[in-house]
Amino acid sequence: MSDIATSINSLPFELLSRILQEATCFNLQDTSTFNYGLNGTSEVGKDVRLQRILRGHIVPDALRWRATESLRQVNRQWHDWVCLYALKDLYITRWRGSERWLQSRTLDTLQGTPSSMSVYRDPYHSLKQILRLFQESPGLGACVHRLWFNGYNSAETAGMIFAILRHCTNLDHLTIPWTTLRYGTKEDWSQLLGRGSKKCKLLSLEFLAVDLSTKKISDPRNQHDERPLDFATVDFGRVERLKIFGNTNFMPITDKDLIAIARSAKNLREIHITGTSSVTIDGVMALIKASHRNLRLLEHSPLSKDGFEHPDPTPANNDQSHLCETLLTCHQLRDLSISLPSLCEDLFSDPTSIPWQGEVQIRAASLCSHHHHHHHPKTSEPDRFWRILDLARALMAVKDHELDIQLFINYWIFEPQRGLVHGNIEMGQALSEGAWPRVWAVSRKGPYGQTGRYGKDEGPYSCVGEVEFREGLGRGWVSF
């Protein structure tokens, strides 16, 4: 093996890396990808043959480490390659569950009753092991490019998370609990974001939020906030992707936090804010205004108490601000899915300057009141909306079918390109005594127009043409 390794080592690094990667792929085929357990326990006085059952997948980083075990032992060069390959992405999750001791000589036959003693495992074991590994071998931390912490939401674990991050000098993507924004000090965040350092590579930052138990919330050790965003040394200027996902019942991320982040986040290319009820359009717009020159992807889908709400549930604080005009200042914006309090014709008025591509979803509750009243004072809201649909169609025509716009207005989904409207038409059918609509079909969209709660019965969604919908709207059988 050593002679073969010597001859291979003379090859260019790119070719050697490809060979080792192919060897690892073959090893992965022979590596178990599942954890196994027993299907049950025997009853007292009876012999029961036990069978192994699947318990779950082995995480990818653990699989890579197992598959490269033989390669690590060949020589130093191969060992270094394995570290770069196996530690590139790390998923560190909190241990959950419970097990009990089972006294048995074989898996086939149990002797005696299973012990009731629980097998205890430190829930922070993985976190402590990674920290100890990086402290004993500092060079390994530099191999990590993507890091995901899951389930470590307390003040105690926040300190260990930042201790691990200090060793990860080449980190590109980081996913951490939202509580780190409360428990991390200004020094922790300044070092992570690379204030005054040219070596910082952190490009993507994700905050994941979940509900905490009453025990964790009431723990005095968790009842403090370091407020790192209040300090100018915490600079998000090098972050290009920001994601906030999930809802929580404890110290959530709010508009105030996003406005503080926006003071330095001038280079964001992607903004994802989904599934949270603590952030409104005000915080999102602060980020958009700060990074409008570089922004390429924008996703904002808020969460209400009842589920996903299509229009943003909170209007902008500044009544003079026109959100549609703000979006049009993002000249590099390609991917758009946003919930707004209102929309108007301005959003589609200049097809040549709008760079959108692919499927664009815009959710709103009404039309903008800031604009065009002096131009068309007698125009009704339905007529204004039909004009918006026509402008959307004109924009898609200019893009030559590279763009598909969908408008969600309260309970209705409009597809201007196909001239279709999706929604629940049962009330219209009842009011018209079956005379409307004359032509309709079952919709493949929804039902998620009203709240989007999973499992909620909002009735069947149907699809009608725009002309048919206009007639029902004019006769009062349906409404926005």
Cα separation of the termini = 74 Å
Question: Globular, elongated, flat, extended or rod-shaped: what is the shape?
Answer: elongated
Let me know the average pLDDT: 82
In the predicted model, the low-confidence regions spanning at least 5 consecutive residues are 305-313, 449-457
Number of helices: 17
Give, in spatial order, the strands making up the sheet with the most strands. 3-6-7-8-9-10-11-14-16-18-19-20-22-21
> What's the β-strand tally?
22
Give me the secondary-structure category.
alpha/beta
For the biggest sheet, the summary is: 14 strands, mixed
Evaluate the radius of gyration: 28 Å
Q: Helical residue percent?
A: 25-40%
Strand content: 15-25%
Structural account:
The protein is an alpha/beta fold and 480 residues long. It is 31% helix and 19% strand. The chain is built from 17 helices and 22 strands. The protein has a 14-stranded mixed sheet with strand order 3-6-7-8-9-10-11-14-16-18-19-20-22-21. Strands 1-2 form a two-stranded antiparallel sheet. Helix 6 packs parallel to helix 8 (155-165). The longest helix has 18 residues, at 381-398. The model is unreliable at 305-313 and 449-457 (pLDDT under 50).
